[in-house]
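Quick sanity check, Acetate kinase:
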Amino acid sequence: MKILVLNSGSSSLKYQLFDMTDESVLAKGLVERIGLEGSLLTHRPANKEKQVINTDIPDHTTAIQLVLDALTNPDYGVISSMDEIGAVGHRIVHGGSVFTETTIINDEVVAEIEKLIPLAPLHNPPGIAGIKACRSILPNVPQVAVFDTAFHQSMPEVSYIYGLPYEYFEKYGIRRYGFHGTSHRYVSHRAAEILGEPLEDLKMITCHLGNGSSIAAIDKGKVMDTTMGFTPLEGLMMGARSGNVDPAIISFIMEKENLTIKEVDELLNKKSGFLGVSGVSSDLRNVEEAASEGNYRAQLAIDMFYQKIVRFIGAFVAEINGIDVLVFTAGIGENSPQMREAVCDKLEFLCLFIDKEKNKFRGEEREISRPGSKVKVFVIPTNEELMIARDTATLVK
C-alpha cells in the first residue's frame, strides 16, 4: 500500500509518499506561499533530480492537485496514477479531548475538528482545508486524521486540570492538552524497539527540543505528564516563545506598555524565548555562535534553556517514580552535542552517565550512555510522517 502524508500549514503544504511494503519514501516535497505571490512547489522524488515548479497556487485544493500531478508526472513522478494511493494521512494539530486516537475521516469528524478551531485557530483551519481539498480530488480514497494531542490524552486528570475554577474546564475545555504527541510516540516506541523491551515495561522521558520544545513523561507506554499545555506556549522556553511565566506578568506588561491582548500574545509567542533574552535570534545555532564570541545575553539564554530542561526532567522523574530511558529528538535534541552534555551532566545523581566522545555527532540515531549507566540515553531522529503513515495504513487495513 502507498500512503500519502500531508501536513497543511496556513500558506504551506508538506508531503511524503510512502511505500508501506518497506516503509520507503518514494517522494517528498513542500508547497510554499499558498495564496501569495511567488508560490512554488519543491518536489524531491527518490533517486531523481529535485524539481522546482513556480506557478500560481491560490488555495490548498490547487496545491494538492499540483502535488498529485508531480507524483504522477511521466518524467519526475514516482507512481503511474493516483489509483496507486491507498490512503491519505493528515496531520491535525489539535484533537481536544474528543480525539484520543487516529481516526478515519468522515463528515462528522470534519465537523468535530471545526469545533476545535477556537483551541487552535492558527493550526486547525489549514488542516481542515487540506482534508476538504483531498476529499474533493480523491473522493474514493480513505482519509485519516492523526492528532498531535492524541498521545497525551492518557494523562491523568491531576496532570491536565489547571488550578482555575473547574467550571472553565467544563464550559470551555480549558485544560492541558500537550503537543508534539506524534513525535513523542515515535521516539518512545523506537527506543523500546532498540532495547528489545516492551514499552509497557519502561519509564521514559522523551525530549522533543527544537524551535518549539516539549518534554513528556511516559510510564508503561502512557503519557503521565508533558510540558506544553492548553497551547504550545506553556512549558520550556523556546525559540521565540516564553514558556512558563508568572501570569501576573501579562497584565503588568499590558498596563506598563499599553499593549492589547493581541499584542501581548504576539510578545509571548513571537518575541520571547531565545530571541527575546539573547536579542540575537530565535535559532539556537545563531545564539550559540554569538555566545562563543562573548555575547553575555546569548550565553544567558542558552543557560536558561538548559536549566529548564533539567528542571522538567527532574520533576518528571519524581512524578513517575524513576527513569529507565532518556531520549533526545528534534532539531536541537538531534544536533546539539553541547546541550545533551550540559543536561546529562546535571543528571548524574540518577546514575545517568554519557560517553562524551560518543556524544560528539549530529543527526544520527545513537545510544550515548556509558556502560554501567543505570539510565539508557538515546538520540533518535524523529519521524512524525512515518508514524502518520503507519497509523493510516493500520487503520485502513
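Posting the structure with no commentary besides this: The two ends are 10 Å apart (CA to CA).
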